[in-house]
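Sample entry (115 residues):
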Amino acid sequence: RTLWEDYGFLRVQLSPTRAHGVNSTQLRKYLTSLKSVIVALPQVEFVLEVTKETRGLSFALMDEPQPNLAFLFVSDELAKGDSSSSSAPPFRPPPCPHPGIHVGYGGALNVDNLR
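Predicted structure, serialized as tokens:
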């Protein structure tokens, strides 16, 4: 709440991964508290990074999408900080067919390598 009230932040990107110092093995246990923050601050857009590591939390939040929550799909190699592990371009997940779920693509995903 302080970031919004005191500093005017309107967007928060959440990257709960080991690369960012988070013990991501039990992310789903934070589902209820994270959802309550998202609901309590409808004026703030929350962007959750989606990787293999965060999929449990991400997909659970997609079950009841909130209008101020977006999902950012990122290449797993880049999420781990390893941009040289593969010569193949990252794979873009198929668009989410569920209305109300906002998605984007980041990292090395761009207009030239989207499949």
